[in-house]
Design goal:
heterodimer; A: 321 residues; alpha/beta; 8-stranded mixed beta sheet; 5-stranded antiparallel beta sheet; B: 334 residues; Rossmann fold; 2 domains; 4-stranded antiparallel beta sheet; 11 helices; 22% strand; globular
Chain lengths: 321, 334
């Protein structure tokens, strides 16, 4: 089966007065239909910019650099016109953001916003659009949808608001959903509910999903594959079980070691020393070498993302070590 | 509880927030609108002891009142009812010197390292002001004292002349910790102190908390919604739901044998670093509004085991195992 989305050598740079910030610098990955890809990284790793690049939402001074390729269902998005992108966004590719209060219009009722979204892409009557909106709300598990359609965003709780945002993303039965930290602002119990809905949707409808998060534990139980980003590059990519249980890159190992749990009680956590380097002044070679416990001289050259085990890729000279 | 006197005892701590009828409401009332003042009971009847050197984790969802309780303990906010005992002494009855000592001994570290530091002050002043004002160091020794405190939290003393915006999130949180430590506290209230940090930085700060506890014999009330963090750090854990403590137990016991259905549900929801795909079976519903709490057990509308009694009678905290108390009627059914 061919991939829904195929990203090759994606480079998104920000041309600022202080210099060029290479927020995303050579990212490759595929997402298959029905697959959930977890895109994991810390602040400044480029995970959000990767998601925004796919949707064509990069504003100046940032732009996608020549030579990048984003193929969606065989169509090259980097070459698409703004009109074409607008037709795709919200219909074939949808996005869910971290803060649903920021993405919903506070002065419009939910039905107004949802009907508008439906009619932006297909010519249907308001009554039919409303019916679609209602179905989408039912799909994400919102009780008494007719009543909720007439409410304003502030009348919803955080979890319900995020469900509305997901329902809006689902209106056009997208082939791909990019979800940027959609549960970070939510409580554990509500997060569980949202993860449950997301999982069900992908399995039932064959929608591909990219789940962007800083929390490895969230995607561990959700994603089929995990891509770990560091300083604008993917440093490890593989099936969830492989990445979590047999990580190859020292950064991934460090991340896993720094997650607190019952087993770590009374012990110090294995911390990664130092912090993420500035994207304006990235060191030559591997960006992680200054924090890496097993760095060698060779790390002054940039390693390639290589397949060390079947389907398990790492960008490290010492991945086999 | 017998044994040594607890460092801090809370008895029946309650906090009500009252919104009075404003002018518009009063005018509307003149025409018979019947606008009444609204009362939110954020914290209800909390009893909790914290022993010296202990780390107590306080867990709950947003809106359950855990931060309000933390602020009451830290002395930032007065309680509406109940007593707080510090080393056996009623804080409300304390005068002069005793009260001063208590205020310095209890310090708080906040969630947002961006909002809790004054952007116009240098670190030397943020950390050094309180000990100077309280006479712990004189002006001449202040710089050296700040340097010493910064070293303690793992910051370069050369940073003392910087402003908060020149630091990363993790460093800023360390400045907040240094500020709290500067007045030599015995008890620290951490309100979601690592929630805003990246995973690798969070690990550094958690390690710092543990090191400081060992070196300085600190006692913590660690407030968090993140069960994994609490599990890692705490000796005892208290679970809060809609303003009340519903279960208190030693951390091992609580995570191995959660008693209250809410605790069990919370534990089931924690994302774990396990690679097998799991099927999420979330608890239905959300935290009810504290403006209109359900009668009886506040958890009954979401509880899979609720029966008739839960709807009318509020369960009390009862011992289910040594040191383990839980407020659930199911325990009476045997």
């Amino acid at each position: 089966m061919s991939a829904t989305l195929s990203v090759r050598n994606l480079r998104t740079h920000f041309f600022t007065k202080e210099g060029v910030a290479k927020a995303v610098d050579g990212v490759d990955f595929d997402v298959a239909p029905g697959e959930i890809l977890g895109l994991v990284g810390e602040s400044g790793s480029g995970k959000t910019v990767t998601g925004f690049s796919i949707l064509g939402l990069i504003d100046p001074p940032g732009r996608i650099v020549e030579g990048s390729s984003i193929r969606f269902n065989g169509e090259e998005l980097t070459a698409a016109s703004p009109e074409r992108l607008r037709a795709i966004r919200g219909a074939a590719i949808a996005m869910i953001f971290q803060d649903p209060m920021m993405t919903l219009n506070p002065v419009l009722r939910v039905d107004t916003q949802m009907i508008e979204t439906v009619q932006a892409h297909v010519k249907v009557s308001a009554a039919e659009a409303r019916d679609r909106a209602r179905k989408a709300l039912v799909q994400v598990g919102i009780p008494s949808p007719d009543e909720r359609l007439r409410a304003y965003p502030h009348q919803f709780s955080g979890g319900m608001r995020q469900r509305v945002a997901i329902a809006i993303a689902l209106l056009h039965k997208p082939k791909l959903i990019v979800a940027d930290e959609p549960t970070t602002a939510l409580d554990v119990t509500i997060q569980g509910q949202i993860l449950f809905e997301a999982q069900r949707l992908c399995r039932e409808s064959g929608t591909a999903m990219i789940w962007v998060t800083h929390d490895l534990a969230v995607v561990a139980g959700l994603a089929d594959r995990i891509a770990v980003m560091y300083a604008g590059r993917i440093v490890e990519l593989g099936r969830t079980a492989d990445v979590i249980e047999r990580p190859m890159h020292p950064y991934t190992k460090g991340l896993i070691g720094s997650v607190p749990s019952q087993n770590t009680r009374g012990h110090r956590l294995a911390q990664i020393p130092g912090m993420t380097p500035s994207l304006l002044r990235l060191p030559a070679g591997c960006a992680f070498k200054a924090r890496c416990p097993i760095a060698v001289d060779k790390c002054n050259e940039m390693p390639a993302l290589e397949e060390h085990r079947p389907g398990h890729w790492a960008r490290c000279w010492r991945a086999a070590a | 509880m017998t044994g040594p006197q607890p460092l801090l005892s809370l008895r029946g701590i309650t906090k009500r927030f009252v919104q009075r009828v404003d002018l518009a409401g009063k005018i509307a009332n003149a025409f018979g609108a019947g606008v009444r003042e609204t009362v939110v009971q954020a914290v209800s009847d909390v009893d909790l002891d914290v022993a010296e050197g202990e780390v107590v984790g306080l867990v709950g969802e947003s809106g359950c009142g855990k931060s309000t309780l933390g602020r009451i303990v830290a002395g930032i906010m007065p309680q509406s009812a109940g007593t707080m005992l510090w080393r056996g002494q009623d804080v409300a009855a304390m005068g002069g010197e005793d009260k001063h000592a208590w205020q310095l001994a209890v310090q708080m570290i906040f969630q947002d390292p961006f909002a809790s530091l004054n952007p116009r002050l240098r670190v030397s002043e943020i950390v050094g002001e309180a000990p100077r004002v309280h006479g712990l160091v004189d002006r001449g020794r202040q710089a050296a004292y700040v340097a010493e405190t910064l070293t303690k939290v793992g910051l370069d003393p050369a940073y003392a002349s910087r402003y908060p915006h020149q630091f990363s999130g993790g460093q800023r949180q360390r400045v907040g910790i240094a500020r709290a430590l500067a007045v030599k506290p015995a008890f620290i209230v951490c309100d979601e102190a690592v929630a805003a940090l990246d995973v690798s930085i969070q690990a550094q700060v958690l390690n710092l908390f543990m090191d400081l506890r060992r070196q300085l014999g600190l006692t913590y009330l660690f407030i968090s919604h993140n069960l994994a963090v609490v599990e890692h750090l705490s000796d005892r854990v208290a679970i809060m739901y809609l303003g009340r403590l519903i279960e208190i137990a030693p951390a091992d016991e609580l995570f191995a044998r959660p008693n209250h259905p809410y605790t069990q549900a919370l534990l089931a929801e924690v994302p774990k670093l396990e690679a097998h795909q799991r099927t999420y079976r979330p608890i239905a519903g959300e935290l009810p509004s504290p403006l209109d709490p359900p009668p009886g057990c506040a958890f009954h509308p979401r509880c899979p085991h609720a029966f008739a009694r839960c709807k009318v009678e509020r369960p009390a905290l009862k011992q289910v195992a040594p040191g383990h108390v839980s407020a659930c009627h199911l325990n009476d059914r045997g």
